[in-house]
Amino acid sequence: MPVDPVCGIELAEELAVTHEYEGKKLFFCCNGCRKIFIRKPKKWKKNI
Ligand SMILES: [Zn+2]
């Protein structure tokens, strides 16, 4: 299962919010976490 790199929870792929970063598809629990990632991707990319 994909893991939200911001809050660290496991997600059901079909319910997740997606975002593409450096050619990789990322999954987030909500648009809030997605926005947090987009604001500072370098801070969170270690969790990808
Ligand atoms: Zn989240």
Describe the structure.
This protein has one domain. It is 27% helix and 21% strand. The protein is built from two helices and two strands; from the N terminus they run ββαα. A hairpin with a 2-residue loop joins strand 1 and strand 2. The longest helix is centred in the C-terminal third of the chain and has 9 residues. The relative contact order is 0.27. The model has no long low-confidence stretch (mean pLDDT 97). Bound molecules: zinc ion (ZN). The site of zinc ion has 8 residues, from loops.
Helices and strands, with pairings:
Elements: E1 17-21, E2 24-28, H1 31-39, H2 41-44
Antiparallel strand pairs: 1-2
InterPro entries: Ferritin-like_SF (IPR009078), RNR-like (IPR012348), TRASH_dom (IPR011017), YHS_dom (IPR007029)
Domain TRASH: 4-41
Protein name: TRASH domain-containing protein
